[in-house]
Amino acid sequence: QVQLVESGGGSVQAGGSLRLSCAASGYTGSHYPMGWFRRAPGKEREGVAVFGCLGSTKYATSVKGRFTISKDNDKNTLHLEMNSLKPEDTAMYYCAARMGICSATLEESDYNYWGPGTQVTVSS
Questions:
Q1: pLDDT attached to residue 28
Q2: Letter string b/e over residues 97-119, b meaning 16 or more CB atoms within 10 A of that residue's CB
Q3: Measuring CA to CA, how many Å separate 76 from each of 18, 27, 66, 101?
Q4: What pLDDT is attached to residue 30?
Q5: How far apart are CA 26 and CA 99, in angstroms?
Q6: Mean pLDDT, each 10-residue run in order, the chain (124 residues)
Q7: What is the DSSP letter of 2?
Q8: CA–centroid distance for 91 within its chain
Q9: Which region, left, alpha or beta, applies to residue 68 given φ > 0 means left and ψ of -120 to 50 means alpha?
Q10: Phi first, then psi: what are they for 57, rounded to 5°?
Q11: pLDDT at 31
Q12: 4 to each of 7, 12, 50, 64, 116, how far by Cα in Å?
């Protein structure tokens, strides 16, 4: 059973930065797709950025050039560096892992395990 725990959320003013982290445990392998998703109030959860088995990355159009996803395979930790934050980035951010298939997608239905989430609030 894979367990995911996010950290690093908080409140920041527009233009600021935050770094999210997701610690994974309960799985002995290190190469599996992981990703960040978010759900804003009144909206469906959407894919933000994902990191594939071989290091490939994908980003939602809305965050390209501002967010950077990375993974420390030795520590089984996923990170999301968020810069130039905007009020529309306000959401609950979730870490997810996908077992059994190596490709990373921005589709939440492709992911098997989820963390409880960490709140990010960006004020104008």
A1: 64
A2: bbeeeeebbbebebbebbbebbe
A3: 20, 9, 23, 17
A4: 64
A5: 12
A6: 94 98 83 94 96 94 98 92 98 94 91 96 97
A7: -
A8: 12
A9: beta
A10: -130, 150
A11: 78
A12: 10, 24, 15, 24, 8
42/94 Cα distance (integer angstroms): 16
Contacts 24+ apart (CB under 8 A), 115-119: 115/4, 115/5, 115/6, 115/22, 116/5, 116/6, 117/6, 117/39, 117/92, 117/93, 118/6, 118/7, 118/8, 118/9, 118/20, 118/92, 118/93, 119/9, 119/10, 119/91, 119/92, 119/93
Q: Is the dihedral of CA 51, 2, 31, 75 positive or negative?
A: positive
